[in-house]
Amino acid sequence: MSETTPPSAAELLHLRGRTLRKGEPLALPLTLSSMYHLPGDPAGFPGYGRAENPTWEAVEEALAHLEAAETLLFPSGMAAIAAPFFTFLNAGDRVLLPSDGYYTTRLLADRFLSKLGVSFDQRPTARFDEGGFDGYRLVFIESPSNPGLDLCDIAAIAGAVRAAGGISVVDNTTMTPFGQRPLDLGADIVVASDTKAPGGHSDILMGHVSGRDAGQIAALRDWRKISGTIPGPFEAWLLHRSLETLELRFERMCRTAGLIAARLADHPAATRVRYPGLPTDPAHNLARRQMAASGFLIGLTLGSAEEAERFIAACPYLRPATSFGGVHSSAERRDRWGDAVAPGFVRLAIGCEPAEALWAAIDGALRDQP
Ligand SMILES: *Cc1c(COP(=O)(O)O)cnc(C)c1O
Fold first, then answer.
1. pLDDT tens column, 52-101
2. Does the CB atom of residue 143 touch ligand 1 within 6 A?
3. Domains and CATH numbers, the chain
4. How far is the CA of 193 from the centre of ligand 1 (A)?
5. What is the dihedral of CA 57, 62, 65, 69, to 10 degrees?
6. Does ligand 1 have an atom closer than 6 angstroms to the CB of 78?
7. ω before 25 within 30° of 0 (cis)?
8. Tens digits of per-residue pLDDT, 230-277?
9. 67 CA distance to ligand 1 centroid (A)?
10. Does the beta carbon of 193 sit less than 6 angstroms from any atom of ligand 1?
11. Exposure of 127 in the CB half-sphere (CA atoms within 13 A)
12. Per-residue b/e over 197-210, b at no fewer than 16 CB within 10 Å?
């Protein structure tokens, strides 16, 4: 399917074990310390908790393995997204953003970049390459876009952005490194919210930035240390634990989503279904080329806002909640936040329930409509 090589999930489980010395704990210790024992010459030793923490470093090693790139951990997806903006942009620069991607990214540009003299344009993800990339210092890509699940050609766009002298940044939250590898496709930087599937249990916020240019990563590390946008060690420790089962959960979630999307596409209650894995999806051919899986998000459009709300309320195995990627399936009518989607559009985030039990609950709730 995809043209890139997936990360080794087996290797991930043995990263720590390989470097252990006799008597050390197999599980990752949680280090809570702002200060380090540091007499004399400080060079080459951890000095202060805003710059270094061994628990973050273990999580970064795991994520670096998954991304095959140097990785920095941030306290949320938005902190990860803000990092390349504040690190690489100067007054007078122009940025290109998806008009249909994660809303808060546009809000960050509108509220905080523009007053520093950085201007931005927006384009819909499905037509992101129309108009070229000349004059953009940074081009921000989100594919599949959240919540509409449109795609754009990451390799073609990253290549065109580089030729035009800009930096490409891809938000890979909806796919994780197991589903899509933007750096292998030629992007400069990957950002992601690990609050979603990587955390997977709806109990932490976290994010990361990965890249293969040592100079860019050093600059991003300085941004993190100086701005103080650092993750909490306990949340980092929880993410480390979650990453050990990411491949297992993601595989189950995607497989179930594929099954449910196909059945929804044939369901009389569904007006429209978007899922990149459906052969009828407008983005299907591109998805096959650049994604290793089809994801666990489904865009389900029902007849009206009322029908959508009734469906979500009636289904016992859908948590009515914003955000996604947890072990429990969840659903949300995105128009309630003002996203540019139909009033009856529901973002279904498939979790780890056994597929047939989940389908029976979804089908039952759809049939319940008066
Ligand atoms: C959730 C999300 C974010 C923001 O992540 P937080 O961890 O909530 O800060 C960014 N991009 C996408 C695509 C998301 O879904």
1. 999 999 999 999 999 999 999 999 999 999 999 999 999 999 999 999 99
2. no
3. 9-243 (3.40.640.10), 246-367 (3.90.1150.10)
4. 5
5. -40
6. yes
7. no
8. 999 999 999 999 999 999 999 999 999 999 999 999 999 999 999 999
9. 18
10. yes
11. 6
12. bbbbebebbbbbbb
- Residue 212's nearest CA partner among 164, 178, 180, 167 is 167
Residue 2's pLDDT is 57
Q: What is the pLDDT of residue 7?
A: 82
Say how many Å lie between the first and final Cα of the chain, rounded. Answer: 42
Structure tokens at 49: 């908790």
- Enumerate residue ranges in the chain where pLDDT < 50: none
290 vs 282: CA distance, rounded Å: 14
Protein residue closest via CA to atom 8 of ligand 1: 77
Query: What amino acid occupies position 267?
Result: H
Q: How many beta carbons lie within 10 A of that of residue 34, not counting itself?
A: 8
Tokens of 20: 């252990």
pLDDT of residue 338: 85
Would you put residue 23 in left (φ > 0), alpha (ψ -120 to 50) or beta?
A: left
- Could you tell me which residues come within 8 angstroms of residue 215 by beta carbon, excluding any fewer than 6 positions away? none
Q: What is the pLDDT of residue 6?
A: 77
- Looking from the CA of residue 81, the nearest atom of ligand 1 is 10
- 162-167: long-range contacts at Cβ-Cβ below 8 A with a sequence spacing of 24 or more? 162/186, 162/188, 164/132, 164/133, 164/134, 164/135, 164/136, 166/133, 166/136, 166/137, 166/138, 166/139, 167/84, 167/88, 167/137, 167/138, 167/139, 167/216
Residues near 351 by Cβ (< 8 Å), separated by ≥ 6?
A: 253, 296, 326, 327, 328, 329, 330, 358
pLDDT value at residue 122: 98
Q: Which residue has the tokens 């990263």?
A: 15
Residue of 195, 201, 322 with the most ligand 1 atoms within 8 Å of its CB, for mutation? 195
Tokens read off for 358: 């989940």
Going from the Cα of 191 to the center of ligand 1, the distance in angstroms, rounded, reads 10
